[in-house]
Structures are given as C-alpha cells and as structure tokens.
Design brief:
The chain has 289 residues and is of the alpha+beta class. Helices cover 37% and strands 17% of the residues. It has ten helices and eleven strands. The strands form two sheets. Strands 4-7-6-5-1-8-11-10-9 form a nine-stranded mixed sheet, with helices on both faces. The chain has a two-stranded antiparallel sheet with strand order 2-3. A hairpin with a 5-residue loop joins strand 6 and strand 7. The protein is elongated and about 65 Å long. It starts with 6 loop residues before the first helix and ends in a 21-residue tail after the last helix. Bound molecules: Dihydroxyacetone and zinc ion.
C-alpha cells in the first residue's frame, strides 16, 4: 500500500488541516508526530525507502537526545519549516516517516520530504514525549504541538501555576475536567527547538496529557488523532470562554464549585485530581486562590 493511502496517514494529514482551520498553525507553527503500529508498518513497507526517488534511505542523523525505549520504531512527523496549510495538498513534500536506530539516538528518513528538508525542529521534544507516554500507556501514539490563541493569551494574565491555571479553565466548561482530569502542565518560557525544553515537557507528560509552553503554545498526546485533537480543542474552548469572561469582569457571579466537580467522577468514570479542587477564598478574583 502507498503511505498516502494508509488510514493513519490520512488521519494525520486531516488533523494538520483541522489545526490550520482552527487558526493554530500560522506560517510554519506547530508540529505533529505519530508512532506507527507494527501492522500499519507492514502495510506500507513496500513504499518505504524511496528517498528522493531512488531506492535508498536517508543517512543516519543525530536526534539530539536519546530515546532508547523507542529504538527501532517508525514515526510519521511533520517537516521543519513546513506549513500545516500545505500538508493535505502535498503530504509527501511536507511530512516524513523516520526510523530510529537500535540505540534510540539516531534517525533516518525512509519516506517523504521529497523536495528536501528535515523533521520538525521539535523532534527531541516529540520523541521524548512519545517515550514517556509509551511507558505509561503503550496505546498512546500521537503527540501534537500547536499555537492555540486563547491558551497562549492566558499565559500573560494568569499565574503560571498549574493548579490555578487548570482550575480556572475547568470552571469554564464542564467537559474540561472530564477530558483532562490530571489538569494542564505548565512549562515556563524556555528556548524552543532543543533538548532542555523536551526534558521539561516530557516530565509533565509522565502524568499529564496536555502541557502549555508559556507565551508559545501547547502540547497534547493521545491514543489516536481524534482524541488528541479533541483534547486540544476542549482545552482551547475553555480558554476562549475564560478570555471572554475576563474581558467582562474579574470576578464571577457564579461558577462550578469543587463539590459539583466531584459529582462528575462517578458517572463519567474519571478521577479529577483533587489538587485542582482547592477551596477558594470568598470573593477571590479570577486567577486568585
Ligand atoms: O515552528 O511551532 O515550536 C514550529 C514550532 C516551533
Ligand atoms: Zn511552536
């Protein structure tokens, strides 16, 4: 089977378009990675290794970090400097499949980026995230980075405190604590594109499915494309409501209380982490405990 006909690939390309349509991928903003299943790899194997039109793979290159738990696996990832806007139109130019070597320190391109290029500048963060989430749940295969406007805006006005940030977003949509009961991780502003920010993000991803990069964007992970996109969409929706509320007032007339959140646990089969359900001081403004 051709890579572009595989169901996972079509879902990957569609998610790029969905993210662009939401306004989360200006220019070359954002990146997406997917850890390919063994059976999916078998289906497309005949189409791999055709690099630059010839029957050879790219050379082994340093990832810039080490992910031994992912050694030998294959990933579909967006290309560095490529625009999400173009992925569905020309997937083979904007996306690639990489293979990791047996040490988990090197990769080579085995499909795509046919007009040249290299995998996303955030490859170390993607692979480190994919490694920690695989350890916690081998079914988690998707890692997504985008620039969602309202979540970013809030990193300028809310304290960069995970408990406060999460709680304020929880209060904006009943869905939020059900979809991310472990809350939103926060990485303060750091230089992007390298290993250090990858280490900081993957530390959050050990327990959380969504993590904000202050003044930059967000990362989310999930079992499949729908779940991962839906997670980002839900968090960004909560953030959008909060931006609207904050543009009207700094104090809410009424809201969802910790006791109300706790009622969600049983019927929805979740356990909302109690660290986000602290009691607020009477009269607390938005962003205050
Ligand atoms: O340009 O979003 O974080 C891609 C990015 C870098
Ligand atoms: Zn970014």
């Amino acid at each position: 089977m051709k890579v572009i006909d595989a169901e996972f690939a079509q879902n990957f390309f569609r998610m790029c378009q969905d993210g662009f349509d939401r306004g989360w991928h200006e220019r070359n903003g954002g990146n997406l990675s997917y850890r390919i299943k063994p059976e999916e790899l078998e289906d497309i194997r005949e189409d791999l290794g055709h690099y630059e039109g010839s029957l050879q793979t790219g050379e082994w290159k340093e990832i810039g970090t080490s992910v031994p738990f992912l050694a030998g696996e294959y990933f579909m990832v967006t290309g560095s400097g490529k625009f999400f806007r173009n992925v569905e139109l020309a997937p083979k130019k904007n996306v690639c499949i990489i293979e990791l070597d047996e040490t988990g320190r090197k990769y080579r391109i085995v499909w795509g980026l046919c007009a040249g290029g290299r995998p996303t500048s955030e490859l170390p963060t993607h692979l480190m995230n994919l490694e920690v989430v695989k350890k916690r749940d081998p079914g988690i295969r998707v890692v997504y980075h985008c620039h969602p406007t309202n979540l970013i805006a809030l990193t300028y006005v809310l304290p960069l405190d995970e408990e406060i940030f999460t709680r304020e977003i929880y209060e904006m949509a009943t869905e939020c604590p059900i979809v991310f009961p472990e809350g939103i991780g926060i990485v303060p502003w750091m230089l992007c594109g390298g290993r250090d920010i990858g280490v900081a993000t993957s530390e959050k991803m050990k327990t959380q499915d969504i993590c904000i990069w202050a003044h930059h964007g967000a990362f989310a992970c999930g079992h499949d494309f729908d779940e991962t996109f839906g997670l980002m969409h839900t968090a960004e929706k909560g953030a959008e409501v909060l931006v609207k509320v904050m543009s009207m007032t700094d104090t809410k007339r009424q809201t969802i209380t910790p006791e109300m959140f706790r009622q969600l646990n049983e019927p929805f089969g979740v356990h909302i982490n109690e660290r986000f359900l602290y009691d607020k001081k009477p009269g607390a403004k938005i962003g205050e405990r």
